[in-house]
User: Fold these one by one.
Assistant:
Number 1:
Amino acid sequence: MTVRYDPDGVYAVLADLDAPCYVVRNGDRVGASAEPPAAGGPLALLAAAGPMPSTRLGESGFRRRHGVSHAYLAGSMAAGIASEELVAALARAGFLASYGAAGLPPERVERALTRLAREIPGLPHAANLIHAPHAPQLERALVDLYLGHRLRCVEASAFVQLTPDLVRYRVAGLRTGPGGGAYAENRLIAKVSRAEVAERFLRPAPEPMVRALFERGEITAEQVTLARLVPMADDLTVEADSAGHTDRRPLVTALPAMLRLRDRVARELGHAVPPVRIGAGGGIGTPEAALAAFSLGAAYVVTGSVNQACLEAGTSPAVKALLAAAGPADYAMAPAADMFEGGAEVQVLRSGSLFAGRARKLHELYRAHAGLDEIPAPDRRRLEAKVFRRPLSEVWQETADYLAEHHPEQLLRAEIDPRHRMALVFRWYLAQSSRWAVTGAERAADYQVWCGPAMGAFNEWAAGSVLADPGQRRVAEVARHLLHGAAFHRRLAHLRFSGVRIPAACGSYRLPPASSAVSVTS
């Protein structure tokens, strides 16, 4: 047998995750080998670890259900940032990804669905459905598209309650399975952060809502019966400290609590309804973070921020450069465009942009004044010169023209409510700041880039490697390295629990150096 004692040789044995690893002692030397020591020989076996490829991380049920090789989901980033190119690249590599349909008109989403069906026929992929309480017709239009295109997986986000169209997507895909039970052709992955919302997805769809769909002729009588036998979701992603809308909950408290909730609901329902798989998202930017999520019991992991800096992401090169330079603390909370009046916030990139501070100032003015005309003249001049770069009257006219065509009821309200009109003008800036970032407009100081600490952690881990340069970051390579690294650290943890001291030179997963373009396979 070949025993390696030098640090590079030991690391090579540890990193060969398709082969077993044996830690042996020879006198005062400790080494590693892929072969077991011979009985009665000079080598003493200290510990052993079997093969640990990244394809074994997480739950096999997730991989089988979605037809992928890895328990990994690249979450949907709004406005097409999770682009067709990103989704297709991951699908070809054996990963699941969700197209970022939120914030896009239905015709743009339809083009994306058509392109994905053409470029990756038969390969699993998903698209986002975001709750739109102020525009239910948009939610309905997207569900119509998804059903019409036979999209078999949807990632649902921002739902605080179930809606008829979300239920329609799920139930319209039910049929009787080979064993006589219910089989859900339409898979649903729900992203949640609160227990009361999660419980709605852990249980079957509400019967009154299902019955109403049947009475409108949108589902069949058989599907009404089958709806009692499946939960609303196949998978539930626990969202921790993530980009964008976030409760900033620590994963180490949120995930175990959600697992306990899932198990309680499963006991109540008995064998009539299969339990939902629980995944983890938010803060997954390094192999160690991914392994921590799996070790806590996650069936799969979800990444977001780290994918936004990749070549395939549908955002501007300027934003990708900002993301690649971000550190672990370069983030801030700022008012959200969609729930501005209620004070909801999103987590955004602070480094390289003044957006967070300017958005907070707008919310302070909104809370302090009853309308645009009450804003003190010095504040109004600063807004027009620095933030909007145009008269507020022009911004309102542009907003009013849009509302007249798309949301006339909002325009009527604004005409009688000056404070609502002020909110709409301020929301114009919040909405435009995201578009400027995506398109790379010459408004870099106002870029709104949804991002979380995972980005900074990833950059620190990738420093000096082939992934340090945003021009070399490909989304499938990022996924492979994150999971291969997680499997590597899982092996180290196994050996440490066996009493082996891992030398510092071998204790971290090594990315290929910047001069290399070698990819990792598992």
Number 2:
Amino acid sequence: MQLRVPPPPQPAEAGGRAQRRRSARLPVHTRATVVATSALARLRAVAGPRLAPLAPYARRLKPLYPRPGRSGWRRWTPSWRQWLGAALSSFVLMSLSLFIAYEMTDIPKNLNSFATQQDNVYFWSDGTPMARTGWVQRQDMPLKDIPEQVRWAVLAAENASFYSDPGISVKGISRALWRTIGEGDTEGGSTITQQYVKNVYLNQNQTVSRKFTEAMISLKLDNKMSKDDILEGYLNTSWFGRGTYGIQRASQAYYGKDVSRLNAGEAAVLASMLKGAALYDPTLSAANHKRAVERWSWILDRMVDIGKLTPAQRAQYKTFPEPLKSGRIYDTGKQSDYLVELAQQYAKKTAHISDRQFDLGGYQIYTTFDRRRESALTDAVAKARKQAGKDHPDAAKTAHYGAASVATDGRILAVYGGPDHRKQGYNESNAATVQAGSAFLPFVYAAGLEHGVHKTRGGAATPVTPDTVYDGDDGVAVTTPEGPYWDRSGRKVAAHNDGGRSYGQITLDQALVRSVNTPFMQLGMDTGLAGVRQTAVAAGLLPSSLGPQVPALSLGTNSTPSAIRMASGYATFAASGMHTEPYSVRRITRNGSQVPMATPRPQRAVGATVAEQVDRALTESFRTAHPATAPSPAPGTPRAGGAPAAEVSGKAGTTHDDTAAWYAGTSDSVSTAVVVYRIDLAKSLEPLSLDGLAGTAADVPYDIWSTALGLD
């Protein structure tokens, strides 16, 4: 019998190496089993004593399949303890997951770009909307300015428990998820908080991940924002159809008025649109109308149910409030573009609004433009354009018409900027392009009356009155205290009248009435061209529109005022010598809050007596040229500034080279200036001869002027 001698015991380290060598010779899957078994053995050795008390409970929860002591199908079903353990474990895991998700979800700092951008809305002087600019049709409205019944109409329709819920609806989310996952469809059920989160933080994609994120943000938002702030944000960002976001723009689109003027019945119609304007806008189809009426009635009944309308109040809304047939989406177009351009430039400058701030929108710009006067002025120019196309087809192709009406208090009431802003970008009413011509003479007359004349160099000024006599002959040489005035070519400078006509000795008053040039060219020299320039600027003309101080300045040869500035200057004479800078915006708000801006104040330009004398001559000029049209004023009729005067005054203006024709005058404390000229913009900015386009002695500008004022 052969005996086996066991090997001597190995040190622990040597044994470990031997064990690893033996394991290395085993297959891979066998090695993994050995390692796992060893690890489990070590875990039992360490944790066994600590877990020993829990062992009986663990054995009871451990499923035994098939279950002993049971027969049939019961052998394979878990016990109630196992069901309970699984349910509790699932609840704990789900709660932990939701807690982690809630803590890890942050409210985004950046809102959707469309959620903050708004449009800018421009209003006529009577407060009705005129135009809007911007990519998004939205105007934010503070909650305090939204009537309570309007708010509750929306809440009754969408989320009556808004002020008491936690920001989410578990039932609604479950229903939405079931339809999204189980049936591939979508359904509502969101709270207003959830809808607000979707509007401003997320997208409109109907996915499980988006709905989950929406719920987490809604919970957190409900804890950090007040309910009123959430409701305000929701009402200002929701889609109401007709191209509008927010209840303010929706109110204007459906009912043509601000949300502050809505009643509960109209609010219920707008609340219906949140369900889908394509289905509930009653103007789109008979089926829509039926649905809209049914939902409108339901919303009002619901308001009664939740205690926000009394039965007596509900009884007041028996007739469905029909919205406007088409939404008033006040887009700019043609002539209104020129108005918007003027108002925008003025608003930015006066209220110190940067381009970036203005582009973000939300501004309500209340202009000075009078809808009736604007329409009359535009129609008058359109009529003249049409007639010019028939009578002078070639010249009419390059014809331009600028016109403006300015009140004596500085308000710009109407302008004609051009046929279409999209085709001709610059505003002809505000363009300093052509000579003022003899329309400039009243400023020279006012300067002489205001400052007097100097017959000797450095001597005292001699007063000038309307009865002061000057030489009205054609070709009279212009003189200075030292003798004739010589130009740079060494020739004597002489003044000329229209048509070369001579008038002999004539008073300044009659010279202005009959538009005689020669007396005023000499008057300008006697007064001092610096004084003429000073008076013209004080009355309203821009310094940049006045050329060099040479004798021709008095005849408007190197003066190029715009129609707005010419009207403003004539308004100064009608306002007893008080000039107010022309302005196009009277008030600006942003999201209902007032934006600080300064309104121009009247300043003394010339004395009241001087202004009255100039205006009296302009009145007589109008009566002399148009006796059949001139009205007879009631004696003692007061005018701006308190001076008694006639109702209508005005004067034509022509240039020596026939490149421009003007008519400027005042009626009912509103001065209007009209200019007709020709420029071929495709070639240069040099004025061209009118070639009869303006008629004889500026007939066409006068026709436009009188038609716009209703005097024809």
Number 3:
Amino acid sequence: MATGVFDTPTPDPYAGMPRSLALSLPSAPGGTEAPLPPLPDQMSEGTISKPGTRSIPYADKPVNPQAVEDSVPTALPFEFKSSGYKCVADLPEALRPWRDRPTTWANVTPNSEHVYLDAQGVVQYRPDKTAAGYDQPVTQMQFGLGCITSYRTEKDPARKALFLKRAKAQAQRLIDKRVESRGAWYFPYPFNFSHAAHSGIAYKAPWYSGMAQGEAISLFTQLSQLDGITEEERTLYKAAADGAFASMLRADDAKPWAVNKDSSGYLWIQEYPIDAPGISDYTYNGMVFAMFGLWDYFQATGNPLAEQLYDGSLTTIRDHFPRLRNARWYSFYCDTHRIQAPTYHQHHINLLRQLHWQTGSPTIANRHDLLIDDFPAYILRAGSAAAFAAGTHTLYKLDTLGAADDYGWSSSKGDKQLAVKKVTFAKATQAPVNVRRRIMGRGIYYRINAGAYAGWWVGEAYPKVFLRGEYVSTTYLPQRTATFPANVAVTCVKFGSDGVTGSTKTVKFASASNAPFDRRAIVNGRPMVRITAGGLTGYWAPTAQVLTDGR
């Protein structure tokens, strides 16, 4: 609860707030889940420069599928910590890797500041529009995967054909530009790259990325599963997936490499591998994107080594979560440099959600919830409103980024308090708001964006001040377990709609009692879970009063 949000609290929690507001949800267009941020730019904030004279040892020979298959190692590269995680076999299509990232028809022929298509329809990456473009493996792979996702759902034959053509073009370029080493395929970056804030990243072409190696597995595997390709193409893509997968089974005792283990025995897929021990970034998001390739490959081939690598990687993500997390603020980008990552925090949330779907692990789901509460997605849909109870409230002027940056946080401004004032309402009222976000060093606040108090912020404090509706929702598969503690009264709510007062049910159990839930959201300003069985079916329980999966 924010300090000074309202004065003189009363024993009646709904004093001054009509139950028709507190116990109902407004009908609102659009979904309630946080929107996906754009895919991260792997080159962001780094410096690209022309390569030197060192040649890249491209394979430059036809692919022999049988030889590639025979070259896939049959043992793990080294021993590492694991936990026995298993890949879910029957995950619905919509929840599988990359299905949430379609390439839009408007972007099927990109031409932006950083990307464009060459004459073969292959994405090229450039530092800016005046510079020459380069093959950038991750950009090509993600574009191709997006085209595959769109191909699966597109109904128009001409559009469907172009999506497939684009995906195949990316795959062919990667195959043509592969480097073969130790029986594995690697996908080189043909430009120099450095990053001032990440010490150790100062690459001379060619260099390699574990993120690219894992995403290549996804691209080739998913292409091989499409109905619109020939059997010859299918054989080629399966071989390419085998070649990329083999790179995950080669240790860091020779170059190039993509996987290693740290001094504590944890497996890492290195987005930015550095040869000096302990210098690599140990980047979280790049590792998880690579893990999706292992998941795809295991589903397609049943190769137990793929599941063991996935298990080891997820064990690393789980056990290093305390270093990824930055409680009540943005999470950190990587394990080495501990740089707060405003642009990556929502990616971490979305990636953990997918890891939960892929394994059913309640521990991973719990980690996901913590990141949401630390710093939830904060841009609200148009028409959002906050309800104010009758009485006195405290408003704040805060130093944030401006309208062009959605009033987000700035390290130089630091959410500094600029002004404060109290306002009194004779009866409950509502105000339009466009931002709900954590303020540095405080709780969750709303920004009023119209009316007499436009530009002022107020703290979230249900039921005196709350955002009406359901926000930042997550649907869980499999369902999770809420535990009602023994001898604790918990009031659950079945919400009405648009001013129709819902119902409450207060329960107290003599011993701890479990109930399944399928959804978690911020509902009228409180984190809540939706119960799906028993006498509380359809009711929402506040997370502050129940345990979720024993936590």
Number 4:
Amino acid sequence: MSRPGRAMSVAALASLPVLPLGWFVGLQAHPPWIPAAYLGYFLVVIAVPGTMFWRRLTGGTGWFAVDAVLGTTFGLACEVLIYALGRWLDIPLAALVMPALALGLFLAVPSSTRSTKPTPWWSVAGVMVVAGIVAAWFVRVGSRVIPLDGPAALRPNSDSPFQLSLAAELTHHFPPQVPYVAGEPLAYHWMAYSHIASAHWITGIELDVLTQRVVPFAFLLLTTLGAAAVGMVLTGRAVAAPIAAGLTVLAGDLGPWGWTVTHTLYHDSPLSMGQMISTTQAFSTVLMLPLIAVTAQLLRRPPGQTRQQLAGLFLVAGILISVLSVSKATALPVYAAGLAAAWIYLTIKARRLNLRALVLGVTVAASYAFNFFVVLRGETNGMEFKPAGTYRSMLDGMVRGIDPSVPAGRSVLLIVTAAVVIGWLMPAVGALLIRRRLPRDPMVVMLLAGLIGAVAAASLLYQYSQAQVFFVRTAFIYGVLLATWGLASLERKQYLVVGPALAIGVAAISMGRAQTKTLIRDCQDTGCLDRIFSAPLIAALILTAAGIVVLGVSIRKRSLRLWAIITVSALLGLTVSPTVVSLRQFAFPPQTAYDSIAPGGIEAARFIRRQSGPDDLIATNIHCHAPTGPRCHTGSFWIPGYAERRVLVEGWSYTAKANDVHTSTEASYGPFWDQEKLKVNDEAFTAPTREVLDRLRTQYGVRWLLADDRVNPVPEELEKLAELRFQSGTVHVYQLYPPRVGGTGSTTP
């Protein structure tokens, strides 16, 4: 290697400490052994083996840094598959075999890796700067979204305990069931929790810390690094890496209104509450990136590709597709839409069927069918065909609290629909600047079709909890890559106008949001609503147009491409992430006004965990998110999360049977489908008898009772029929006596 090459490598390496430093800074609220243990496990079990797998199977990309990032994300896919198999065989530490498998593959398969070229120091340094921003955001915002201790930890919404309960289920059981309704099959995408469970077994870190801190932070960093790596694969230019990383973190959608700053209905960037509280979405984004990269290597047909490399590429793609299918139900359809368009494009161009895209398509179809019929068991979870239902629901959420006599007219719905759709598609304007290096390159078509298909799916489908919006959240990275590709296609001198043009868009959208001065609830007529919704959007677009004209006229040597660069950059600036400008609001997210987790409940659940086996079953009188009230929101899931034991019946929201409805009210407040089981369960806490407790133990397998005094006072008879083992706050824990054989008496265990 020449001296300049060595100097570039040294400079690049000098910036790499930002990554581990940011990792420890981001998790500074925890004991140092926690980030150190996860980092060590991640490097030894996932990153190094995954990189070896990737380079041996795919032949590499030509940049070692890119291979290391994409290999690490591929290693995650391998780990969760191995863990699921190991958990089924009762070998929860199975992922520890990955280094040995990687070494075996390294020795058995001859190297076909391309000669590597150094990544410029400024490219690596730019990505590290963005990684530092992610770490700073996580310290300021992400680590505060879900409190882990103190009084605030007792007041989460229903999502974080739900995530924790599924992680606990995958820690001890496979195939998984609904942990808060024992015996109910888990018709949900659960692959992300396999990673959390594997990390828990290997590192010993508590599940709540992994689920709500360590793993989300790791996925944020991996998404940023992965986007940078794929940007280089698509463009062949090192400048794409910092651009892709920056857009992934700082770009979002067109959010022209002030209240969109804290509105989580928009897909936004990885720096958002939606990404923090949805482990499945974050995990699917991480896996989508190497899949896009390996798809590019397959469909572009680079010269010199051997049959061995082709087989390896299809194997890598097959693993990623199969894992992705069980990671997020909205992920594969977006990829499939893009792949179908690329196949049609290649077939028409070559005037013959493109077999590579066809094989990928068949793999996608088989994996999705397996997910739908085996994992999801054919359940739609309330998803239905309802055009424009997404935008009506968004508008309903925005005008909540307004006087019922002030209707939101059709004009308001059209404004909201136009703003949201344009905002979702805005990153696609980057495609106007793309200069492809390869003839008949299908990747632009694939990314553009995937993004458009996602917006179409979100526009035509509807689910009461807005699950259809996750189609667009999945496609966010497609838009980022299109914008990256366009900006990375510029000549060096042309970047001098990109910065000012981006600033025009950022300033315009910020000033547009500032136009929302009148509160929606203060409107007294529909015309007021029209002005509130249209004025910020119109102001932002007018300011952007004016800025484009002024900047363009101020440049002496103008050309059509220069005008396109200024316009595209300014429009991309309009998508600056609302999260970036709203740290104060996001740092203190709203919580419930009541303790949805019983005082002393976490300690009680962990007592049961220490004193019981993983197959022990708990019965409880807790079924509602709020302990008292006129209505029961059945979204209580925290007991199996902290106890790591299944519960006979706690809440029953977020199950396939509860979700098979048309409204959120039906899903969250509907009755339990097995009233006999619920009756026996509740009688143990309201009118306990020996017969009731014996039936709980023998028929249903219950070993423990967890009672919350806030729901109903514990009857004195219960202490005579079961052994009080623990008491904290408002919670009592009892262990059931085994029934006496041949009699009605009882014996102590």
